[in-house]
Design goal:
about 270 residues, alpha/beta, D-Maltodextrin-Binding Protein, domain 2, nine-stranded mixed β-sheet, 10 helices, 12 strands, about 35% helix, globular, Solute-binding_3/MltF_N, signal
Amino acid sequence: MHSKIGGALLVLVLACAVCLAGCTGSEGSETQGPENSGVTETPVYVVGVDGEYPPYSYIQKDGSITGLDVESIQWIAEQKGFEVTIQPMAWDGIIPALQQGKIDMVYSGMTITPERQEQVNFSIPYLTINQSFAVHDDSSVTMDDIMAGKVVIGAQRGTTGAFWVEENLIANGTMPKENLKLYDSFPLVITDLQNQRIDASVYDRPPHMKAIEGKPLHIVGEIYTGEEYGVAIRKEDTGLLITVNEGLAELMASPKWQELLTKYEMD
């Protein structure tokens, strides 16, 4: 259901994005009042998220967008004196969208990697997670089978789970390249796993747990990757990076942080 609602809203949001293009509130474009009026308007920043990535960012049945990351940036915005517009986007195109100025930051469980750091700046880390694998309840697939490259693995395109399989199983010849099936969204991966068209799925553990809730699937094992999540911001937006870092530090030092971790079952 999330997928259908998310798809419809995504079309609407993308249409709005076209209208918004060129008017995002990056630090260099903070809107000013009429000349000589002395009035400065509140900056508005567009925050790109994956709309199907609970518990960090997801679209609810009523069409609203919430999650740990969404509530975090809304709290930071209130504390630091700016406003945000949350915009769901295709994950594999989200960094190009940031570089092109269609959004002002990515705050949606994005792992800090050297490759991404060449393209954008990252805030201070705010969470550390590992990769996990899930299989069907009727499956006999084990972690040994997965590590031996004997199974077909599904992953969302552009995620660190897909990168991990490419770098640790395919690049060294352990697993044939065709055994990695890439999808545009993780719900599509889970659908194919549930229908046993693939043998296993790989994803960040917290959203993986959420994705298999109520389905005949279970986590079969975890790979320690120690990935750190950060907020991605354009290289030139150094002022915004400072503001977000200050806000993150204030959030994690406040009772609000534990409240959010508890609410989204992250503690």
